[in-house]
Write a structure and sequence with these properties.
The protein has about 350 residues and is of the alpha+beta class. Helix content is about 20%, strand content about 40%.
């Protein structure tokens, strides 16, 4: 299945122009607030009729302004998960889940899928409870399940973690990962969190001022983001656990890294997110420092950014690593393409892929 979007829409002084294709997996719409992310999912979901363009899902045209075609929302078979769960308070969890069947012609096997969706989201113990007795994370899992039971061809998720605290976010993230890996349909996921996108996305669509500025795999695209918490994504594997110091040792193309012990088995794949501001550079191998992770590399590019800073992009044995330094540090170290350096990594966020 695939989702093709090619639309333009003007609302007041804001102009949206978006063109991209999403395939099974999780495509993150990433950008600052007001960049047009929610407008895109509302157009795909049928909540906004664009002034020009086309939306095609799995070969079926949902919108084509050239011939005035506009399929209404209830006929699109699109699952929509909002920031708040929007569960029906008078229905049990089971009946909230099964409400999705009303949007499918006939039962279409939806009842047979209930067990699979319940297992996928880990909500079997919640089926007989009422929504007001659930935590925020539990409510969002039920909302996702309701969307899946409508047998959607596309799932839209508009910042589904925005209303949750850190603990509830940590609770629901693994279930979104399972959804990404097992649902078999495109997921369009709105976020302005770099760390969230680094963990979840397979493809990233970067938005700025109503325009798509970049589209591509997360490992290649996310480092292009010019944001205060920009950084790099590295694929890694747990090679062993150091039980004496409660550390996990991971292998990446860039080299070996040590992090606080991860609750994952040896050999498990993980995805690492390294914030640019958490990388220091040295011209010589550093000695007697507290940082456990030092990776050799070469400067690939130096790009000035706002606030007298610069992003220094490093080639670490083929892996891309970004360090955000002051312009003064760049000049003092005479950093230029080709110069060998050592990246001292102060903090790393590792998540399962």
């Amino acid at each position: 299945m695939s989702l093709e979007v090619d639309v333009e829409h003007v609302r007041g002084s804001f102009r949206l122009q978006a063109h991209f294709t999403a395939v099974p997996g999780l495509t993150a719409l990433f950008g600052r607030s007001g960049s047009g992310k929610t407008s895109i999912v509302d157009i795909v979901g049928g909540l906004i009729r664009p002034q020009r363009g086309k939306v095609v899902v799995d070969g079926q045209v949902l919108v084509d302004t050239a011939c005035s075609l506009f399929v209404p929302t209830h006929r699109r078979r699109i699952g929509y998960v909002f920031q708040d769960s929007r569960l029906f308070p008078h229905l049990s969890v089971r009946h909230n889940l099964l409400y999705g069947r009303w949007f499918v012609r006939g039962n279409g096997g939806a009842a047979a899928k209930l067990d699979h969706v319940v297992d996928l989201l880990g909500i079997g113990h919640l089926l007989d409870r009422q929504p007001d007795s659930l935590s925020g994370g539990e409510k969002q899992r039920v909302a996702i399940g309701r969307a899946l039971l409508a047998r959607p061809r596309v799932v839209l998720m508009d910042e589904p973690l925005a209303s949750l605290d850190e603990a509830r976010r940590a609770e629901i993230l693994p279930y979104i990962e399972r959804l990404r890996d097992e649902a078999g349909v495109p997921i369009l996921y709105v976020s302005h969190s770099v760390a969230e996108v680094a963990r979840l996305a397979t493809t990233v669509v970067i938005m700025a001022d109503g325009k798509v500025t970049a589209v591509g795999p997360v490992l290649e695209t996310l480092p292009l983001v010019d944001a205060s918490d920009g950084g790099s994504v590295l694929d890694a594997m747990v090679s062993r656990h150091d039980t004496a110091f409660e550390l996990s040792v991971l292998t990446t193309v860039a080299g070996e890294l040590q992090v606080p012990r991860l609750n994952v088995p040896q050999g498990a794949p993980v995805r690492a997110y390294v914030r640019a501001r958490d990388v220091m550079l040295s011209l010589r191998p550093p000695e007697e420092i507290s940082a456990l992770n030092v990776l050799p590399g070469r400067v690939a590019a130096v790009t000035p950014v706002a606030g007298a800073q610069a992003d220094v992009r490093l080639d670490c044995n083929g892996a891309l690593l970004v360090a955000r330094l002051t312009a003064k540090s760049v000049e003092r170290l005479a950093l230029a393409p080709g110069r060998p350096v050592y990246a001292v990594i102060k903090s790393v966020s590792f998540e399962r892929t």
